[in-house]
Design goal:
With 247 residues, the protein is of the alpha/beta class. The strands form 2 sheets. The protein has a 6-stranded mixed sheet, with helices on both faces. A 4-stranded antiparallel sheet has the order 2-1-4-5, with helices on one face. The longest helix has 14 residues.
Length: 247
């Protein structure tokens, strides 16, 4: 569903952020993209979304090459949950945010209403429907942001730090929601416990290159590998405990 082939990228000449990156995310996979600060995780997301131009190599989304001429088709297939929900929820109310994209993609008002009500019920967010975005909590806003993306019915979902700054209760809700989503998912996060709980596969970036790519249970238990790339074991493994949300 998402393929990166020999992708390199630089913000400044002579200072590559990504170098010869190649990987494929298959239909239905949930993949964690991890790495220390500056590893290139956010840049990968922006390139897949077409927010940055791919100047070397090729990226394909469902066999569509990502480029200026194809952005409309590519973005119809992708949903992106931003790290900061305030940057995503731009309409006055949750309801208005949820209907914005479907209506602009040509979905009928009746079908859009059905989608919104079904999603709010499934996520237990019915009471947020007509709430103003600036009057709901951070956890509620994060859930509302996910609902907004799901209302588009994308084939693939990209998430940037979906559990950042959440309290334990709302973090658990977000984790459970991610695990139930049927879409193909690519998630960047420093929350390795969440990655271990939700992802079957992990891609470890270091210095703009792939340092490891394989089963999450193997990579996230490899203390030596993680520490070599300025990362630590998930807390649940540091404490020699059973993961709280073990799959």
């Amino acid at each position: 569903m998402i393929t990166c082939s020999n992708v390199s990228f630089s913000y400044e000449t002579g200072r590559p952020v990504l170098q010869d990156l190649s990987f494929t995310i298959r239909d239905g996979e949930c993949v964690g993209l991890i790495g220390a600060n500056g590893a290139g995780k956010s840049t990968v997301m922006k390139l897949i979304l077409g927010l940055l131009p791919c100047t070397q190599g090729e990226i394909r989304v469902d066999e569509i090459p990502v480029g200026k001429e194809t952005l409309k088709d590519v973005r119809r297939k992708l949903g992106f949950v931003l790290q900061n929900s305030d940057n995503q929820m731009f309409m006055p109310t949750v309801y208005e945010d949820m209907i914005f994209a479907p209506l602009n993609y040509g979905v009928s008002k009746e079908e859009t209403e059905k989608r919104v009500d079904a999603l709010l019920e499934k996520l237990g967010l019915q009471e947020l429907k007509h709430r103003h975005n600036h009057k709901i909590s951070g956890g509620e806003k994060r859930m509302a942001a996910i609902a907004t993306i799901l209302a588009m019915e994308p084939e693939m979902i990209l998430m940037d730090e979906p559990t950042a700054a959440l309290d334990p209760y709302n973090r658990r809700i977000v984790i459970n929601t991610i695990r139930e989503l049927p879409q193909t998912k690519l998630i960047t996060s420093h929350d390795l416990d969440m990655i271990l709980s939700t992802c079957s596969r992990v891609i470890l970036l270091s210095g703009g290159k792939i340092a490891a790519d394989g089963p999450a249970q193997e990579i996230l238990r490899d203390k030596e590998l993680l520490e070599a790339h300025r990362m630590e074991l998930p807390l649940c493994l540091q404490n020699a405990a059973v993961p709280l949300y073990q799959t």
